[in-house]
Amino acid sequence: MRSDRAPSDEPSPLLLRPWFWTPLALAGILGGQAAGLAPGWVAGMAALGVGAVAATAGARAAAAALATAGALVAWVPLGAAPFAPWDVVGLVALGSVATLLGATLHDARRKTTLRARDGERRAQLLADVALALGHAPHEEDVLSTLPPLVARVVPFEHASVLRPRRDHVEVFAMVPPLVRSGHEVFGPSISGRAARTGIVQHVEDTHADPEYVAVPGIAATRSEFALPLRVEGRTVAVLNVERRARGGFGETERATLTALGRIAEAHLVRLETLREAERERQEADLLADVARRLTAIDDPQLAAATALEMLVDGLGQEGGAVFGLQRGVFRPLATNADLPRPIRAVVEAGIPWGSGRLYQVWHEARATFLTDAAPGDQEGAFRGLGLRALALVPVQDMAGDVVAVIAIGSRDAGREWSTRDRRLLDAVAGTLGASLARATQHAREVELLDVVRGMAQSDDVADLYRRAVEAALRMAPGAEAATLSVRGPDGRFAFEAAVGYDLATLQAQGGSSEEEQVAWYGQGLEDYRAGRPRLLVGEAVERAVRADRGGPVGRAGGPRPLRANLCTPIAFQGEVVGVLNVDAFGSEDAFGAGSLPLAEALGQHVAAIVRLAHDRAALARSALTDPLTGIGNREAFNRKVAEALALSQRHDQPMALAMIDLNDFKAINDRLGHEAGDRALALVAETLVRASRASDSVFRWGGDEFAVVIPLASATEAHAATERFTSAIGELSVLGMPLAAGVGLATYPEDGPDAESLMRRADDLMYAAKENGGN
User: Fold this and answer.
1) What pLDDT is recorded for position 16?
2) Which residues make Cβ contacts (< 8 Å) with residue 59, sequence separation at least 6?
3) Using an 8 Å Cβ cutoff, are 708 and 698 in contact?
4) Within its chain, how far is the Cα of 603 from the centroid?
């Protein structure tokens, strides 16, 4: 139904009405008579009027005859003379003019009538189209119905609906089906241009358009009309119609196709509105279900896995992961993807802190949405998950600290992240953040409870210290190392536990004074003794490290420069009994706002551990120490003998055991009193310790008997030692009463293969010496 003439070129509907020409013709006749015009003029006017009336009335064939008869009828009343030859010629000429005018007016009327009928038909067809589309329940049904409906309103060579993708358009439906559904058109095309710009594309001559793409297997068309269908500001499809003739789409066809497209758009908007309402209902149900399920979970990993599973299902994604930060490395709390073993190993190995998209999202606390995360643009974990359309959303706790990152997506590179997707992800992230904070707090409380319970069950103080440091390290996700220094009996602080450092290397550096610890803390003596945590980051911690060259941190050193340090004095009853340092090397953002109160709470538990360790060490010392002399007792002697004998046996080296008994000790008690006897025993113990080598150990066996274990000593060295012992004791006196002692010496392996035989041999020799009155 092509028409190239504009409506402004058509006659006015007024000129096609008989009642318009009738008075006009009469006015011409009467006016001519009144003006005294020639009878031919009057007759001509009559002929023209009659012909026009006849033509507009639809009698084009009779227009000429009626016009001629009208002229004759008008001629006679005018009293004209009998016809002259020129009068006949004039009448014929006027009749011809009347005939031409009548035919022209008749054709114009007919075209107008047909156009009106065609408009009514098109309007009815569009109404039928609207009715047909109104029954389509889904967007796909609307789009697949469009090409057959176009055939009812506009003739074409082929019509198709194409859907835009990221870098191409894809055939969804076509009439006739010249290509399969899903056929992809890459590169420039007229339909692609319509999808890209959102503007109607009308090409009168496709040969002149460089972006025209012919349908494979058929002759190229010469005219094309591409109409984008848009919903909420985005192009969801393109209706494309092509004709073989150049300029094949007139104004009427274009208007009809545009009206058809607008009808389709209206139905697509209606369906989108219904879908949005349903999505909002599903979103509300999903969020309520997420909150309900996460509220009952106290395990961080289970909470992450639950939220991830519900998000993947709710958003129609293919997989994802929830990453947490552990000791400076991003590790998955949960994954939702079927990963091959090598890729799973890469994912579980984690992603280093300090760079990449995960770090950016964590550091900035701002989500990132990618529609095409190419493999070269991803960390190894994302390549392993195979996700290209990717959303990375930070999970924050109530204090605003990021505690995890949700990574979720699909393998479809063209997937767009809608406002609804982003809103849902943000809402679930908020719920998960609260759940993780609660679950993490619960896990920490359970862990601290285990540590405290372990204090009552474990005799291994070093294990308690190690567990306390590990708990401190888990307190801050970005922490990478931690140390615990404990005050010793001499008042100096020595490293007792470390994670991320080599403890033996730290202990070899020696301890530090309290003045050095206070200087490193740097927040004042009052806060230090109150056990208030102190946080240093960035340049502040760098300056503190430079100033602490010989202090506790300077001695510790580290694999990398510190970027953040959390120092917690361990205070107990107003005294600092230890110092806990937690370090981060990758970023100064490793410790969030919640780290300080957690550190303070942990410090209180660690203080109890340190105090208990001190008490146990003191108890252990008292159990192995003679209270009068301060040297080891018989239990300590038994342990040391077994240890020294095992060492000698392992290295095939000699050792010796000396038993010493004071002469006439009963006389000292009887004459001078028990206090003097106690003084004598203490003097002997001090003298034996001074006379011993650093490797020797002195013990009070009981009463006035002493024992000395002399490890890795030959018989000659052992005899020299006993001579020193007796000589030193012989120089002692108590209230003027001199002291003397008898000594028995046994050597391994000459005098026996085990501790029992050596002790028996030394004891026998000692009593023999006393009976002989000598040494």
Assistant:
1) 47
2) 66
3) yes
4) 32
In sequence order, what DSSP letters do the residues of 587-604 get, joined into one string?
A: -TTSS-TTHHHHHHHHHH
Put the strands of the sheet holding 575-584 in their side by side order. Answer: 493-499, 481-487, 575-584, 564-572, 534-537
Cα separation of 272 and 291, whole Å? 27
Dist. CA 174–CA 81, nearest whole Å: 76
Structure tokens, 5: 């003439």
CA distance 299 to 293: 12
Instruction: State CA 264 to chain mean position distance.
Output: 39
Taking the C-alpha atoms of residue 505 and residue 495, their distance in angstroms, rounded to an integer, is 10
In the numeric block, which tokens belong to residue 239? 């209706």
- The pLDDT confidence band at residue 79, using thresholds 50, 70 and 90, is very low
Separation CA 264–CA 132 (nearest Å): 10
Residue 661 has pLDDT above 60, yes or no: yes
The yes-or-no verdict on residue 546 having pLDDT over 70 is yes
| Parallel, antiparallel or unpaired: strands 737-738 and 741-748 | unpaired
Rounded CA separation 245/156 (Å): 10
Higher pLDDT, 67 or 605: 605
- 7: three-class secondary structure by DSSP: helix
Terminal CA-CA length for the chain: 139
Please identify which residue in the block is written with the tokens 């998209």. 357
Which strand (E) or helix (H) includes residue 54?
A: helix 39-56
Mean pLDDT of 300-322: 85
* pLDDT tens for each residue of 670-707: 888 889 899 999 999 999 999 998 788 999 988 899 99
pLDDT digits (tens, 9 = 90+) for 548-599: 765 666 555 555 788 888 899 988 878 898 899 998 887 787 787 667 777 7
What is the arithmetic mean of pLDDT over 647-673?
89
- Provide DSSP, 421-462: HHHHHHHHHHHHHHHHHHHHHHHHHHHHHHHHHHHHH---HH
The sheet that has 223-231: what strands, in order across it? 184-186, 168-175, 158-164, 234-243, 223-231, 201-203
Q: What is the mean pLDDT of residues 178-186?
A: 87
* Rounded Cα–Cα distance for residues 607 and 579 (Å): 9
- Whole-angstrom Cα distance, residue 625 to residue 633? 5
Q: What is the mean pLDDT of the chain?
A: 78
**Closest among 487, 447, 488, 489 to 468, alpha carbons compared:** 447
Helix or strand or coil: residue 166? coil
Q: Can you tell me which residue has the tokens 């793409």? A: 213
Q: Strands, DSSP E only, in 490-541?
A: 493-499, 534-537
Which amino acid belongs to residue 19? W
User: Would you tell me how many other CB atoms lie within 10 Å of the CB of residue 171?
Assistant: 21
Q: Give me the pLDDT at residue 4, please.
A: 36
Nearest to 224 by CA among 198, 196, 194, 252: 194
Mean pLDDT, residues 307-332 taken together: 83
* Angle, CA 604 vertex, CA 507 and CA 524 arms, to 5°: 75
701 in helix, strand or coil? strand
pTM of the model: 0.49
Least confident of 66-80, 103-117, 217-231, 587-601: 66-80
Torsional class of 356: left (φ above 0), alpha (ψ -120 to 50), beta (otherwise)? left
Stated as kind and residue range, the H or E segment containing 669 is helix 665-672
Angle, CA 420 vertex, CA 414 and CA 424 arms, to 5°: 110
Distance CA 411, CA 429 (A): 22
